[in-house]
Prior knowledge:
This protein is of the alpha+beta class.
Amino acid sequence: MKSNNNDKENPWSDCDMLVKARVPRSEIQLLAKYVEGLGHLGVITTIDRLNGEVLIQTTKHCWPDLKSIIKELPLAIELE
Length: 80
């Protein structure tokens, strides 16, 4: 596939979504395991482990479901 900024050739170009969040440092791995176990609605990437900052990579189509599930997890998570 050609790397091209033409949205007509790549209908998924507007689907990617990145959400910053903060969780206690000790819960980063647990959050990643929860999200991984949810059928891959998203991927967690740690951007600052000392401050508990993570990046949630998802799509705009998956985000509503993932967001509602994350809010119900027994974790102290702060979405930015």
